[in-house]
């Protein structure tokens, strides 16, 4: 199994999950930009994902899965005995879907143009910054009531939330208004899976 990734992006989420589940995998680093390429080969990454987005997961059968939330759930369900597999309980299942949708459309895609597309300009970035506040408020309220984003146990949505909200630091967004979120990031940052994924990203950047 091969994970196409780029350091400091949402591909951190499936990277964390691969460690969490103990699934053997290799990494292929993608250089994001106008013409994304897999650095080690120079090959055009759009052959893997036509939009040039990370993450993509090459399955052992050679098929490629794109879209972060599908990858996360595919990985979790490929270990059906894991507590990370899709919950059987209908309420829990849709609570998880709710948060995956929320993180993807309300958080990730508010941050994303700002981070990866400076051509959107300063005005778009200022709008994104303002729009983030009420969206982080929603997360804060949930984390005041629960240890994890979809309830009281770690789920695939936590891997995704961790990856996305970690962007606050490089963007110099203070987490002071969201203390439960700040504590959550601190706590999750101690997880072995997250430490291992971040260490691998660091090694990739240094290589
Ligand atoms: N819909 C895709 C979006 C993934 C995405 O936005 N990836 C970002 C990194 S976090 C990216 O590759 N951006 C490159 C670009 O926008 O050109 C998914 O959810 O997997």
Explained architecture:
The protein is of the alpha+beta class. About 50% of the residues lie in helices and about 10% in strands. Strand 3 and strand 4 form a beta hairpin. About 30% of the residues are buried. The chain binds glutathione.
CATH architecture of the largest domain: Up-down Bundle
Shape: globular
Number of domains: 2
Arithmetic mean of pLDDT: 93
Largest sheet: 6 strands, mixed
- Count up the helices: 7
Strand order within the widest beta sheet? 4-3-2-1-5-6
Written as H for each helix and E for each strand, in order along the chain, the element string is EHEEEEEHHHHHH
Structural class: alpha+beta
Distance N to C terminus: 22 Å
Low-pLDDT residue spans = none
- Total count of strands: 6
Helix content: 40-55%
Bound small molecules, by name, code or SMILES, are: glutathione
CATH fold description of the largest domain: Glutathione S-transferase Yfyf (Class Pi), Chain A, domain 2
Q: Strand share of the residues?
A: 5-15%
Instruction: Please state the CA-atom Rg, rounded to the nearest Å.
Output: 17 Å
CATH uppermost class of the largest domain: Mainly Alpha
Layout of helices and strands:
Layout: E1 2-5, H1 12-21, E2 26-31, E3 37-38, E4 43-44, E5 56-58, E6 64-66, H2 68-77, H3 90-116, H4 121-145, H5 156-165, H6 179-188, H7 192-206
Parallel strand pairs: 1-2
Antiparallel strand pairs: 1-5, 2-3, 3-4, 5-6
Helix pairs in contact: 1-2, 1-5, 1-7, 3-4, 3-5, 4-6
Bound molecules: glutathione.
The site of glutathione (GSH) has 11 residues, from helix 3.
């Amino acid at each position: 199994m091969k994970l196409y990734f780029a350091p400091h992006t949402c591909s951190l989420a499936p990277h964390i999950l691969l460690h969490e589940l103990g699934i053997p995998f290799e990494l292929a680093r993608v250089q994001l930009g106008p013409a994304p390429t897999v650095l080690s080969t120079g090959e055009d990454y759009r052959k893997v994902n036509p939009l040039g987005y990370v993450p993509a997961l090459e399955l052992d059968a050679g098929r490629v899965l794109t879209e972060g939330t599908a990858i996360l759930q595919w990985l979790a369900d490929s270990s059906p005995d894991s507590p990370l597999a899709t919950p059987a309980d209908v309420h829990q299942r849709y609570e998880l879907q709710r948060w995956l949708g929320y993180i993807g459309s309300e958080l990730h895609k508010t941050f994303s143009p700002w981070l990866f597309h400076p051509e959107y300009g300063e005005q778009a970035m200022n709008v994104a910054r303002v729009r983030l506040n009420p969206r982080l408020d929603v997360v804060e309220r949930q984390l005041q009531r629960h240890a994890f984003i979809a309830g009281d146990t770690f789920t695939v949505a936590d891997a995704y939330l961790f990856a996305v909200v970690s962007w606050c630091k490089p963007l110099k967004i203070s987490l002071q208004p969201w203390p439960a979120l700040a504590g959550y990031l601190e706590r999750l940052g101690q997880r072995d899976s997250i430490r291992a994924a971040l260490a691998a990203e660091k090694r990739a950047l240094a290589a």
